[in-house]
Write a structure and sequence with these properties.
Strand content: 35-45%
Helix content: 10-25%
Number of helices: 1
Radius of gyration: 15 Å
Largest sheet: 12 strands, parallel
Structural class: mainly beta
Shape: globular
């Protein structure tokens, strides 16, 4: 796997993380326990930080990036991803904040300054524009994003279960490499 420093900042991986050998993590990237990073993910914490919460999985081909600190934007836009989040294949998360128990559908794009509260389902191909807030407990979809409907109890339960499914899968991958 390509885990590289940038300006004296090196990715920090907690115990029991799985990082696929084809993925790249650069700079200020912090992964909590049981995070899984799947094939061809690029996480570039070069001009700001990336934080990934416990039991979160980042699936194949996803790009994680940030926006730099500047005079016009003194904090820049770090990327913060909460716990128990499933990020589908080929997503783009750029300088946004995701809460806990979220599923980001395949190919979704979430842009700078966007905030996704806890317990949210984002449909495949959705575009969340800069500085948009997605409220807890809803399905969102579309380009640009629209609130579609409240989540069903079964969907809320699935958000956590999806993350746990990936914890099990990454443990199986880790066992294969021993």
């Amino acid at each position: 796997m390509a885990i590289r420093s940038y300006k004296d900042k090196f990715p920090d991986l907690a115990e029991h993380c799985y990082i696929d050998a084809s993925s790249v993590l650069v700079g200020d990237v912090k992964c909590a326990e049981h995070v899984s990073i799947w094939p061809l993910v690029a996480a570039r914490g070069d001009v700001n930080s990336i934080q990934i919460g416990a039991r979160t999985n980042i699936q194949d081909g996803t790009v994680l990036h940030v926006s730099r600190i500047s005079e016009a934007n003194p904090q820049g836009f770090p990327l913060v991803i909460g716990a128990d989040v499933t990020v589908g294949h080929k997503c783009m998360l750029h300088g946004c904040i995701l809460g806990n128990r979220i599923l980001v559908g395949m190919g979704a794009i979430i842009m700078d300054g966007a905030i996704v509260e806890d317990d949210v389902l984002i449909g495949a191909g959705t575009l969340v524009p800069p500085n948009k807030t997605l409220k807890s407990g809803y399905l969102y979809k579309g380009n640009p994003v629209q609130q579609a409907r409240p989540l069903k109890e079964s969907e809320v339960a699935f958000l956590k279960q999806s993350a746990l499914n990936y914890v099990k899968l990454k443990d199986e991958y880790i066992a294969e490499t021993k």
